Amino acid sequence: MSAEKTPGISAIDTTNFARQIVLDFEFAPVPKQRQRRGLRNEIIEVGAVKLDYHGNVMGEFSQFVQTEYTEGVAYPVRELTGISAVDTAMAGPLYVVIKRLSDWIGRYSAQVVCWSGADRRQLLTECQAKHIDPAAFPTDWADLQTFYTSIMDVGSHGCVSLSDAATWFGIEFDESTGHAHSALADARVTAKLLKQVMDGDYRVSPRAQEIRQRWGGWASEPRRAFPRSAPS
């Protein structure tokens, strides 16, 4: 598997880490007049799923985050995510939530897996702007979007969205996952896609045709890619 070009993002590694932490953030935009040190968004929700060597779910983490520069939750974000101003006002600030998340991850060696490199960039930018030391957080990150884009014939479409990849491979946002653009629901679906990587088993859904038509082309079957075997 090729590594992501973004600095600090490595290839998916299912062998050398005891845990895979599938992580997702939801953001809210910071008003221009209140932006600091390049901070254009603030994290308002954190969702994570912990997997073992074999891709089995070991636990989940879900918390809202209190904002510092953003007042309330703008209507478009509220409509998209279902997160209200009350949710963020009653939550802990980012440094508290990151500490809780780090404690939940534990002392095992862990790789953080996200859908795109945006989550890592957001966390580092926000920690710098808010003088938060992320040293206790895992430093090895992998981008699952890059991997799936590489095995799907996307042509000139560009990077594949989480919802498109999920539909392509027969994974649905439903009652078991929660609605799309919920941090935990997105992490759950991303974890299911990561499990396919760990198993080396990709089965294209009949609904992939809907995506091909929407993209305006007919993509071929994905190239099979098998990760290194995980230790038993």
Automatic annotation (TrEMBL):
<keyword id="KW-0540">Nuclease</keyword>
<keyword id="KW-0378">Hydrolase</keyword>
<dbReference type="Pfam" id="PF00929">
    <property type="entry name" value="RNase_T"/>
</dbReference>
<dbReference type="InterPro" id="IPR047201">
    <property type="entry name" value="ERI-1_3'hExo-like"/>
</dbReference>
<feature type="domain" description="Exonuclease">
    <location>
        <begin position="19"/>
        <end position="203"/>
    </location>
</feature>
<dbReference type="InterPro" id="IPR036397">
    <property type="entry name" value="RNaseH_sf"/>
</dbReference>
<dbReference type="GO" id="GO:0003676">
    <property type="term" value="F:nucleic acid binding"/>
</dbReference>
<keyword id="KW-0269">Exonuclease</keyword>
<protein>
    <submittedName>
        <fullName>Sporulation inhibitor KapD</fullName>
    </submittedName>
</protein>
<dbReference type="GO" id="GO:0000175">
    <property type="term" value="F:3'-5'-RNA exonuclease activity"/>
</dbReference>
<dbReference type="InterPro" id="IPR051274">
    <property type="entry name" value="3-5_Exoribonuclease"/>
</dbReference>
<dbReference type="InterPro" id="IPR012337">
    <property type="entry name" value="RNaseH-like_sf"/>
</dbReference>
<dbReference type="InterPro" id="IPR013520">
    <property type="entry name" value="Ribonucl_H"/>
</dbReference>
